Amino acid sequence: MRLIFNKANDRLLHAKPTVLITGINGFVGSHLADLLISEGYPVSGIALTHDLRHLSHVNQQISLAYGDVRNTKEVADILTEVKPDYIYHLAGSSFVPDAEADPRIVYDVNVLGTLNVLEAARSTHLNARILIVGSSEVYGYVPESALPVSEEYPLKPINLYGVTKACVDMMACQYATAYKMHVIRVRPFNHIGPRQSEQFVCSSFAKQIVEIEQGIRTPILHVGNLESRRDFTDVRDVVRAYRTLLEKAKGGEVYNIGSNRAWKIGDIIGMLIEASRVKEIALEQQSLRVRQNDIPIMRCDTSKVEKAIGWRPDIPIERTLQDLLNYWRETISDVQVLEKRPQGV
Which stretch of DSSP H or E encloses residue 186? Predict the structure, then answer.
């Protein structure tokens, strides 16, 4: 069952293209919605769950459908009703360990869900521009001599999540080629910022540090491999790249999205602690936080996207980490207020 509510977007009132975002209530989807709404786009979205906390500030400005991208008919019905000019397909499972724990559901969400979106757009003759989100995990292990890694590097994923994203990447390329559809593929590297789940490394550290600040956790930070180096970009820069690529880039192309800089995880922790209100925090490595087949270093070659649309990340990592700490301060404070309310109030 799906539900459309708050139909705020009348085409006659907007000069800009109508947008549909799958996974609109997620980390990246909500930031993309913020950007597009601020620029006057009529925005619709598909959400799997009723968890709309990341959209509470804009829920009067979007049209929302509850639906599952794994359901072929639901996807086709929503596209037929919305008739989007631009489709940003962000719905998917993005946490690598989830794929190891339940490969079938991650395959269904990432691969079948993407197939349903592409096929619905093709069969309904929408002539929409479509952005399909892949992942840097498709590259697998890249030797330092080949870094920064470009879009020309062969796809050699070393985990199941990366395999699903490689399937998505090739499927999107096939639809662009065979059906002459305007499909843009992106391969984002690690992106971070406010609203990110605590499952992910930077957000996990930030949440733990804020809990230590507020006295609800002992001053011990649980960590994994501190020597790994990753290419981190602020999510608000990432969605700016998505928007500009779908507006201006040539269909059928693929673009890396990243910062062209590799940060050591231990240095990220140091910056978070420096920005925190407590300076004495011990580190404790937990085996569950150390990933098997961990890639030691990833760094993104951004030259193609820079040449195509002039995009570069603007937000320094220090601001991103500060904003992430502030997000968890607000979130945890809100939870504590709710827990302290008398029953019935």
Answer: strand 182-188
CA-CA-CA-CA dihedral for 178, 183, 189, 193, to nearest 10: -150
CATH architecture, range 4-193+233-257: 3-Layer(aba) Sandwich (3.40)
pLDDT of 342: 44
Measure the CA–CA gap between 296 and 146, rounded to whole angstroms: 13
For residue 265, how far is the Cα from the chain centroid? 20
Condensed to tens digits (0 to 9), the pLDDT of residues 103-144 reads 899 999 999 999 999 999 999 999 999 999 999 999 999 999
Tokens representing 279 are 């300076």
Q: How far apart are CA 120 and CA 97, in angstroms?
A: 30
d(CA 68, CA 22): 9
Q: Which residue has the tokens 């979106």?
A: 117
Q: How far apart are CA 300 and CA 252, in angstroms?
A: 20
Q: What pLDDT is stored for residue 95 in this prediction?
A: 60
Helices (H), the chain: 27-38, 72-82, 96-101, 103-107, 113-123, 160-179, 201-213, 235-248, 265-274, 303-309, 317-340
Kindly compute the dihedral angle of the four CA atoms of residues 9, 13, 15, 18, in this order, to the nearest 10 degrees.
Answer: 20
Q: What is the pLDDT of residue 345?
A: 42
pTM: 0.93
Burial of 341 (0-12, 13-18, 19+ CB in 10 A): exposed
The answer for residues whose C-beta is within 8 angstroms of residue 173's C-beta and 6 or more apart is: 183, 185, 252, 254
Q: What is the mean pLDDT of each run of 10 residues along the chain (345 residues)?
A: 49 77 98 98 95 93 96 97 98 73 89 98 96 98 98 96 96 98 99 97 98 97 96 99 98 98 98 95 87 88 99 98 98 64 45
CB 275 within 8 A of CB 209: no
Secondary structure (DSSP) of 108-174: IIIIIHHHHHHHHHHHTT---EEEEE--GGGG----GGGPSBPTTS-----SHHHHHHHHHHHHHHH
